Amino acid sequence: LLSDTPQINTFGGSGQGGSNSDFSGGFAPAIHSIGGGSSSATLVLINGHRFPTQGLTEAQADPTAIPASALQRVEILPDVWLDARRAVWLSRPRLLVVADLHWGYAASHRAEGNLLPIWGDDEIAARLRALLADYRPAGMLWLGDSLHTLAGRAAAEAFLQAKEVETIVLSGNHDRRWKHATAATAERDGFFFHHGDADPGPIVPASTLELLGHHHPAATWSDGAGSYLKLPALVASSRRLILPAFSPWAGGTPWNRQLQPGETLWAIGAKRIFALAGTPAKKKEEGGRKN
């Protein structure tokens, strides 16, 4: 965001018209040349709060000190935003998109005699309502596998019954028989949506950006000595997005070594989003997740 602001160039670099009046090596922004570059002429706010001053004398706020990875929302393509709450915001049609919610995961397992803790559905509902409050979308789209099984549909149906926003529900392999999953694909404003479980999949119009779920991509790290970290991730290219699973129960499928040429793996932390360089997929490896 800051790199698009007039007279701030790149993170870690001097802005046009910037100054380092306290000789600390920092740069005070001069937005539209207001104040002629004075360190006190431009108020720097991050999410509505004053950004702390930097430098030896703490005389100025230096926006180049903010790492791009610290942003909770990143524009990964024009008009396409990835939110750290595992959602995608399409600003042009004002559409909020989530995939693989797996409502009723615990209830489904308990119905089969597996005594999982009653947890997950309230967390899904709270996260969705927070996203709706922040973005105020014209609509929301659930990209398949909204339910884990029909036995766990109660919480999802209660959420839809509240009619907080118009919601399109696409079918996936877990919820194909659910009455609210009324279609397998959708197309809107240059975007094409489907769950991603069909093989072969639907024909994607050449002029659209494809959005799918199903695979639960994740980014992983290991130090080779036993420490291991996994984060939900989004796979992005100029033609396709594979969304992270929205479910708090989702473990995730390691994707670092499955990236295709031109794809970026966006790892999603609780408050940070990181773009990772992946290892190109080997020919013998499968590129998808089947569940």
Alpha plus pi helix count? 3
How large a portion of the residues is in β-strands, by DSSP E? 15-25%
Mean pLDDT: 82
> What Rg, in angstroms, do the CA atoms define?
22 Å
For the secondary structure, the number of strands is 17
| Shape assignment | globular
How far apart are the first and last residues' alpha carbons, in Å? 37 Å
Give the proportion of residues in helices: 10-25%
**Given the helix and strand composition, which structural class is it?**
alpha/beta
Query: Order of SSEs, N→C?
Result: EEEEEEHHEHEEEEEEEEEE
- Model regions low in confidence, pLDDT < 50 over at least 5 residues: 1-24, 30-39, 284-291
The largest β sheet comes out as: 9 strands, mixed
How is this structure best described in words?
This protein is α/β, with parallel strands linked by helices and 291 residues long. Helices cover 10% and strands 24% of the residues. It has 3 helices and 17 strands. The chain has helices spanning 105-111, 121-135, 154-161; strands at 45-46, 49-50, 73-77, 80-83, 87-90, 95-98, 139-143, 167-170, 185-188, 191-194, 209-212, 217-222, 228-236, 240-242, 253-254, 264-268, 273-276. Strands 9, 10, 11, 12, 13, 14, 15, 16 and 17 form a 9-stranded mixed sheet that branches. The longest helix has 15 residues, at 121-135. The radius of gyration is 22 Å and the shape is globular. It starts with 44 loop residues before the first strand and ends in a 15-residue tail after the last strand. The relative contact order is 0.12. Mean pLDDT is 82; it is low at 1-24, 30-39 and 284-291.
